[in-house]
Amino acid sequence: MSTEPRGLVSNVGARLRALMDERILLLDGGMGSTIQTYRLQESDFRGDRFRDHPKDLKGDNDLLVLTAPHIISEIHERYLAAGSDIIETNTFNSTSVSQADYGLEDLVYEMNFAAATLCRRAADKYSAETNTPRFVAGGIGPLNKTLSISPSVSDASIRSITWDEVVDAYLEQIRGLVAGGSDILLVETVFDPLNCKAALYAIDLFWERNPTLPRLPTWVSGTITDDSGRTLTGQTVEAFYTSISHADLLIVGLNCALGADKMRPYIEKISEICPTYTSCYPNAGLPNALGGYDETPEQFIQNIKPFVYEGFVNVIGGCCGTSFDHIRLLKELVKGQTPRRLPVVPQYTCLSGLERLVIRPETGFCNIGERCNVSGSRLFCKSIMENNYAEALRTARQQVEAGAVLIDINLDDGMLDAMTAMPHFIKLISTDPDVAKVPFVIDSSKFDVIVAGLKCTQGRCVVNSISLKDGEEKFIQNARTVKRFGAAVIVMAFDENGQATDARRKHEISLRSYNILTQVVGFQPQDIIMDMNILTIATGLEEHDNYAVEFFEACRLVKRDMPLVKISGGVSNVSFAF
User: Fold this and answer.
1) Among 188, 198, 296, 412, which is disulfide-ready with 221 (CB 3.0 to 4.6 Å)?
2) Beta strands in 374-444 (DSSP E)
């Protein structure tokens, strides 16, 4: 089989949008649970090629695209015959991270290419036979390791994998899925939004490195693990969407974990807050004691019916336990039904920790806790220097209890290795729900330290800060990195000529920065926070007498010309921030 990249349809996003505006599209049903019905044995998974492989291979469903492609093709075609508009590649675990369990890391590209090729052939065949377009979703699973949860009960800062390793694993998978003929990249069953952010980072990086390839649309589907309505790592549905909202997404939805009957409030919420198209493909109820699924196609349809009739979705399908019969009945259910209309979502600044923070016009001041700053709190600095992270965590918790809605973290000190201390502290506080519920402000004068912090943060945080101090080229480079990580950004009133002290210069630098961020980098205005430097006041020095007045005048000018941006400020010798 050739593994050279093939030509792709460049207008697939527009075609999908047109179809989703017209009707509700159907995804296929469960792949893994359908494979189980074939009752395959070890020899089936091995085939001739892996007869002497040293590890057991039974259960590696993704390997079947190489050893039993006729089975995978048959499943794809039966779902297409049942009415699916979109079929998903059999690649849920086709990354080097997951395939390491089977000793098959070196086959990841081949597996993804083969899986996408099988899907492509089946979709093209049914497109031609029915004169109805069918699409291939390149499935990108959540990995069997998480960036947000420690595998150790005794050390919350430990992780079993790094951000860079996750990005590299996804890049390899994406390369195979695109080359094999996928129409859309589906990051699915997201239980850790930080893993998902790494996947989205990898997708963006892939297109940057392959500018001659037509960019395919992206689809993200999260999973709610229980009745708490949160991901496994603790985020609410609203916080989860906020964490990924920076990406250029065509579809956002939920799948797996719960049955349709328990998923309703969460898909309804997604439908309300997402300006994208939405999807839902639930399990056939909850698994029974033997790991099977008992919800019949008829029961499944009854439970999922409100999603269709009340306009919650644009794409619908099934996950674990659903079969060809489930999809066949879904086809009848959606026939003639009006798809969800995309809502107009207000342009508010939205950030997230485990919970969502929305800054509306009526919100007023947002208090940023500044005591997790080695320059702003002697107690915190002492705790960090003495490696007393329990006390440092207490400092963070006290600020949230006192009303801080964001926590600023700064570990810049000549006696500290901030590149190590920043991710270590973020990993620790991320495991305390009383602290992690609020967004973080990743604060450092060293951009590498900021990046180290971003790699550990599942929520949508704020970067403090970037400026034009080192020129436009560096400013754009850093801003693009911040955007790729999905953070909002604080911009200092600083340029190549130094720090602005009067209102005219503060406004001039802010407007220049704003134009670059919105027109060149692609930031949304509401994701920009201008810090126009109050500087020192009440010092008795004549040159400082008007600093506060200049700051307030600069605020007025910025809000006049850039109404959606936010403004931050700290009164240096009175308080750290307001």
Assistant:
1) 188
2) 406-410, 440-443
Q: Which two tokens stand for residue 527?
A: 């994701």
Q: Are 503 and 530 in contact (CB under 8 A)?
A: no
- Look up residue 343 and give its amino acid: P
Q: Are 233 and 191 in contact (CB under 8 A)?
A: yes
Nearest alpha carbon to residue 149 among 164, 161, 141, 166 = 161
Partners of 442 in beta bridges: 409, 463
Q: Give the largest Cα separation in the chain, rounded.
A: 86
Instruction: Give the residue among 350, 412, 415 at the shortest CA–CA distance from 376.
Output: 412
Buried b (16+ CB within 10 A) or exposed e, 327-341: bbbbeebbeeeebbe
Cβ proximity of 356 and 238 under 8 Å = yes
Q: Which residues contact 300 (CB under 8 A, 6 or more apart)?
A: 259, 260, 282, 284, 285, 318, 322, 326, 329
CB-count burial class (<10 Å; 0-12, 13-18, 19+) for 360:
exposed
The residues, ordered by sequence, that sit 6+ positions from 213 with a Cβ below 8 Å of its Cβ are 5, 8, 178, 207
Over the stretch 490-514, which tens digit does the pLDDT of each residue have? 999 999 999 999 999 999 999 999 9
How do residues 52-99 score in pLDDT, each as one tens digit?
A: 999 999 999 999 999 999 999 999 999 999 999 999 999 999 999 999
Beta strands in 435-495 (DSSP E): 440-443, 462-466, 488-492, 494-495
- Neighbouring C-alpha atoms within 13 Å toward the C-beta of 245: 29
Can you tell me the distance from the alpha carbon of 238 to that of 456, in angstroms, rounded to the nearest whole number?
20
Q: Which pTM was predicted? A: 0.95
Measure the CA–CA gap between 373 and 379, rounded to whole angstroms: 10
